[in-house]
Amino acid sequence: MIEFSLLTALLAGLLGGVHCVGMCGGIVAAFSFRADGSTPPFRLHLAYNLGRVSSYTLFGALAGALGGSLKLAGFLPVQTLLYLLAQAVMILLGLYLAGFNRWVLVFERAGGALWERVKPLFQKLLPVRSLPQALLAGMAWGWLPCGLVYSVLVSALAAGSATSGAALMLAFGLGTLPNLLGMGLFARQIQPFMQRLWVRRAAGLAVAGFGVWGLLRLAYSAWSGA
Questions:
Q1: Are 23 and 148 in contact (CB under 8 A)?
Q2: Long-range interactions of 97-102: CB distance < 8 A, separation 24+
Q3: One Pfam annotation, family name (predicted)?
Q4: What is the DSSP letter of 102?
């Protein structure tokens, strides 16, 4: 199911842009101006986002390694249980993006303490004046507590290995690129569209649909193997 999970993560990142625009809009705005007040070139925004995606990939590797260690420790049903949990969280995430619940904000509150430790480092990197500085700022940005990121991390936990977990979060991070990279360059044009109710509802229900489809695949696999 790894190919399906990678596609799901990629599309979750892409469709989750309705959340990214609201969650990261302030940070993107801070990145959009240099000390002299001019807008930084495309390569700086790309460096910010590559740094952010690299942090996501690291998180995925750690989560996948943890899930794999639980499996190797002899917890036989752990892979199936983690997969079920991942699909359930995906459904809740989709409903959150659509505006029907706020359950995934629990994840954001849980990560707040960690962000408070990273935030001073992040602030010291602003304003950004070079590509290495932009890359480091982007890596720090990746630690911002985000229910969308944490929800997908559950799927990385279920991936069963560091490599699979890293690949899944890399796919998710690449899915977020069009929205956040575009937000940095065309904020005024993109933000109003992404905040429309029908866009949020359609994107959220599509993400929830991935979770439902994952559960159906698991049920079919269990039924056909019985």
A1: yes
A2: 97/15, 97/16, 97/18, 97/19, 97/148, 97/200, 97/203, 97/204, 97/207, 98/200, 98/201, 98/203, 98/204, 98/205, 98/208, 99/197, 99/200, 99/201, 99/204, 100/204
A3: DsbD_2
A4: -
Distance of alpha carbon 139 from alpha carbon 163, whole angstroms: 20
Where do the structural domains in the chain lie, given as residue ranges? 2-225
pLDDT digits (tens, 9 = 90+) for 15-51: 877 667 666 656 766 666 554 455 456 788 889 899 9
CB 139 within 8 A of CB 131: no
DSSP 50-67: HHHHHHHHHHHHHHHHHH
Token pair recorded at residue 15: 């469709």
Mind listing the pLDDT tens digit for each residue in 94-139?
A: 898 888 887 777 777 777 778 888 888 888 887 788 888 889 999 9
Cis omega (within 30 of 0) on the bond before 127?
Answer: yes
The HSE-up count of residue 222 (CA atoms within 13 Å, CB side) is 8
Nearest to 99 by CA among 193, 22, 14, 181: 22
The pTM score is 0.83
CA angle, corner 112, sides to 195 and 132, nearest 5? 80
Estimate to the nearest angstrom the gap between the alpha carbon of 82 and the chain centroid.
18
